[in-house]
Every structure is written in structure tokens, then in C-alpha cells.
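An instance follows:
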Amino acid sequence: MQRRLSLHSFMLCAVAFAGLAQAQTPEEFFPGRLMFSPEEEALYMQRYEKAQVRRTADEIYVDREAMAGADDWAPLPAAADAERTISAQALDAAERYAEINNSNAFIVWRNGRIERETYFGGHTRTSPINSFSLAKQVTAFAIGRALMLNNIASLDQPVADFVTEWQGDPWREKILVRHLLDMRAGFYPQVPPQGPTDLISRTFLHPRHDEIIVAEYPVIDEPGTRYEYNNAAGDMVAVLIERATSRRYAEFVSTEIWQKIGAMGGAVWVNRPGGTAHSGCCMLAPAENFLRLAIAMLRDGDWEGERLLPEGYVEEMITPTRENPYFGLSIWVAGRYSERRGFANPDRGMPEILHAEPYLAADLYLFDGNANQVVYVVPSQGLVILRTGLAPPRDETTEWDNSVLPNLIMRGIVRDQRPSAPQR
């Protein structure tokens, strides 16, 4: 029986790689604090207190908004024996690695066919999984879709065109749409929460978390000048989408993403009934949904002949910034080989994820979320690999290695092997 993750653990995990502020707190940058109705403040405290006693996320964050899937959903095609391009030995070894690392889903797709699809711990193809920060890749796709529909003019449009509260603020009005995706909005970094009055706790648990981010979340660097990972930027995407499109975030994702790619439905956590979605972290959907999202990216935003993203947008998504050479628009890229790398700005000295060897394909990019939710995309090999689940076990001799799954699979290609320049 799989362990359920407590919300307290989830909050700590969500910030585990984000680093501690350098002896500064949000209050030093922005000492004001919004207060809402006594009922809403009481609800916030109930959530906070439950988090302290290790209640599960499902027990605390019960408010969700449904996302409808495609009416005609059907499983992705599976490869027949004669169509398989990856050896059974390689697939077995990769599946075993996923299994011993607390996975709930493992899928390998190549050349339009699934070559291995396995679920663990009672999960099935239709079981919803907790996206963690795979939700951030959904936000990047949602922004691309809004660009395609002309709801947003460009990645370089100021967010203040829609979040008008930011107009007149010398730094907030410089935050561009792209900055919410590439983590260069200048926002205060994600840090472990220090108590019920802490801004990080309030922006995650409060029934008005969106208003707190808009009005109070500190901007401590000039936008575009520094990379700092935080959930506030991801959660601001729901605010932006809703104001730019005049549609609910859940409905927009349902109609413009899941249904367009033939995916199943799901749900997204909202801060209160009828409130705002936590777009940066908290989506429930079957693992296959995220596989389909990666396939759509591999196809340059096209799905069955319909262009879902503007031409060139996928290239923007996988182009890193000068401030972080491993991160584009919510997408992680191979970049130059480093044995360890993490989510936080490297100068914070926080734990980083092991890459024991270079990726065998330099064009690899990936979705990567807390607890090692990973979706690897290798364009040169027409390959997508997904692993979702709980956090892998870690002790003095064992830890998750981000290079194992893609390299096992690529070494196991026995048919239609294509040239791939290795990561250097």
C-alpha cells in the first residue's frame, strides 16, 4: 500500500530545492499584510494547523474544480511485436528502476506507439496522479494556447496589461508574460515556511492566495535579471489566463489542452469554491495526460493536424535563459553536463539531483517536478519516457539518478536508431 503525502511534507518538498533566503524574510521587503474576513482567516488557520499534524493533502485541500476530458478518449496506440524498436531487456531494466523508486506509472512511447506501459501500487491507466510541478508545464502550454488564440499578444507583453494592480509599480510593471514561466519575475524565492503568519504559508494555504500574491508577494530583483524558483510565478499564470481570456483556468485547460489532445479529464485545486486555481503545483490527472502533452511538444504543437501552439513557441519553451542555462519556459533542458543540478538558483547551495552520466542525447528536454515526476522528451529519437510517483527512497547508498531512465532506453534501441549528439 502506497504512502500518502501529507500537505506539510508536500509544502516542505515543494521548497526543498529552492533554498533559504539569505537572512531576509518577505516582511523585510514588504511589511504589509492583507487581512480578509474572519471566516477566511479561520479557514486558513484550519488548513495550517492540519498541515502541522501531517494530514494528507487530500484531507486539507478539498476544494477542487473539475477539468473535463475528451468525450472520445481512447488509449494511445500500442506497438505490436514487429513494431517495437526498444529491446525487452532495456524496457525491463527501466521498468524495474521505476518500480523500486516508488513509481505509480511508467510509460515509454516511440515513433507514435507505446512500447511499455506499467502501473504500480494499484494505479491504473485512468488513475489520477498528483502533478506536483508538472502543473507548471501545463501553464507553459496554456500560455502558448492563449497566444495562439490571440488572447495574449506576445511573451513580451507586460503582465500588468491584465493585472492592472501592478501598473505604476516600477518593478511589477516590468514583469513580462515570459517571466512567469522562466522564473525571472524577480519574485522572492520559495523558502520553507516559518509559521502561520509567514507569507509562503499564506500563499499556499489561504483561500485568497491569489490576491496575496498580486498585492503582497515581494519583488526583490528587477524582472528579467535573476532566476529564482518559486510557486508564486506558477500560480500567477491562472490569474493571467483568467483575466486575458475571461474564462476559468480549469475550463481553459479542459477545452484548450486536454480535449484538444484527446486526453482524460481531471481536477485542479482551487483556494476556495469558485476561487482561483493553484496552477503552479496542484493538478490531478492521469499520467497519460502528461505523456500526451510531451508528444504534442515533440510534434511542435500540432495534434492530428491541428496547430495548438504558435509556430516557434516550442522552440521558445526549450530555449534556456542566460540566468539559468538549464531552464526555458517551465521546461528543463539538457544543457552542459553537470553531475548535480537542482531547482534553486545555484548560489543558494541547496541539494541537487544526481546525473551520474551525461544524457546520450543533447537535445533531450524534460518536465520535472517534485518527488521526481519526470517526462523526458528526445526529439532526435522520437522518444518520450514518463515516470510519476512518490519520492524515491534515499539513503547513504541510494538516490534517484535523473540520467538512468533515458540512457537505459536509448541504449536499448535496436531498430530505427537515429543519430543523437551526446550531452557534453
The radius of gyration is 21 Å. The chain has a mean pLDDT of 91. The first helix runs from residue 7 to 14. Residues 7-51+65-411 form a domain with the Beta-lactamase fold (CATH 3.40.710.10).
